[in-house]
Amino acid sequence: MPRFLVSIACLAIVVSGCREKQIEVQTVPVEESSYSFFRDTPAKAVPRRMIVGMYDQPRATWFFKANGDKEIVDANQNQILELLRGVTFEQDEPKWKLPEGWAIGPKKTGMFAPLASLIIDADSKTQLTISSLGPNQDLLANANRWRGQLGLQPLTQDQVEAEFAQADGDDFYLFDAEGTGSGQMGGKPSAPSAPFANAPFLQRQAMQAKLDAGAAATASTDLKYEAPEGWAVGKSSSMVTARFTKESAVQPDKPTMITFTRMSAAVNNWPANVQRWAEQVGQVMSDEKITTATEKLEIGGHSSQLIELLDGSDQSIVAVMTVEGPNAWFFKLIGDKESVSKQLPAFRKLLKTIKFN
Q: For residues 261 and 332, what is the distance between their CA atoms, to the nearest angstrom?
């Protein structure tokens, strides 16, 4: 049913002699789609899906955000994930390969314009946008911002760690959610727990720096270890508390990596994580196979579990999960099969040096 706005065709009263011209009022029908621009929620609740790759780089955090009709995003899921996994950076600038059948959208201008817009489906306006903010972006703030755009409730700090999946050697965080919101910025603030999510950039950056400093100070007192000899210290982030890299003779452009990640023990379990890691290296692990392949060990006085996933086509993972109080610590060795097999003794030696305060 059309809505109506009142437009005044003539507001001035013109006096001619002793007469006054009458004020003319005209009703103009307005389409529902136009009216919905002024509303906090879309006029029609359409199922939407959003997949975001979040890349933390030294000078900026990059976001590759696919957003649109759920059916269209579902149909293009493999192409979206393939694009995200193929993203590389040269001098902090992203490089990617355009999937077949997609198109590059028109260049947009303005302070908040994305670097690029990739058209997935023109009819439904489903697209993937590429944009950036300052470095060391907060996961909770961004997750709640995107959930708000989908009409979903905000998460707590413990919950957000289960919302993000660190894929492909911890190169990026993956957000994937479905809802019925507009999928666009605007509307009511979505996350009381992330008060600066929509603050001006410089203000938000300053506030984030304080949080990062506090988090780093806390993390540094929780874990002690002896850094592996001959490995370079890599970039850490809000979730990856330590990272070490070593050049691979097989894949020079993809170094072998060791990462330490702390998450909430309440939202993590061993079988689910093993299945996720197995998928990343192209393996299938049943619950029975996981039980058989899991090695029990002790790290820093805490019971731990280790699994070697060495049968992947391009990549292998050796992963350990240690529950220490409310924390679930993940220690992972990632790289090509030859390099992982060669560095496994050094990784096991490192595990023996880990101590919790």
A: 8
